[in-house]
Design goal:
By secondary structure, the protein is α+β, with helices and mostly antiparallel strands. The protein has a single domain (5-188), classed as Gcn5-related N-acetyltransferase (GNAT) (Aminopeptidase). It contains six helices and eight strands, in the order E-E-H-H-H-E-E-E-H-E-H-E-E-H. It has helices spanning 27-34, 37-43, 50-55, 113-128, 143-151, 181-188, and strands at 12-13, 18-21, 62-68, 71-81, 97-104, 133-139, 155-165, 171-180. The chain has an eight-stranded mixed beta sheet, sandwiched between helices.
Length: 189
Amino acid sequence: MPRQLDDLAWPISTARLTLRRARPDDADEVLSYRSLPNVVEWMGEPPEEFHARFAAPERFGALLLIERDGAVIGEVMIKVEDAWAPPRLTSHGQGVQAELGWSLRPEETGKGYATEAVEAALRICFEDLGLRRVFASCFAANTPSYRLMERVGMRREAHTVRDGLHPSGEWMDGFDYALLADEWRRRRH
């Protein structure tokens, strides 16, 4: 049975970063960059109930804050989910995969921090939680996002056609990426 995120020893460190669980009092810090035009371009305006994410994180998945030298520079979301399974095998599909998402302060992009943080999230998912699959999605026009997915070894599984409503109000194509635990292990060795 996979462990839970709450069972892990936080914070988790990488070569340059620290990942820690978000707390309710982190909401304003995250909102400070989630409201910037470069972030809003892909994620949209933060919703009015933004602070609820921090008050009830189980609704949205685990939000891990990315810190560099004690300053919050972004976040990674890990949302553990059930896989589809026929009724008699439902218990085998419970909590076996996760969706990832991320956001970084615009001034911190281009330095490899997002890649380092997502690689740490993959390690958490596969080594610490024992998950079998991790996936992520983005708008096809969000080149930095899908290139990051490719850098960390995720493979493109789908190119969807005008299935997502971009914050501009335009229907846009999307890309779905995924990585299986055995693929991740082969890549690490």
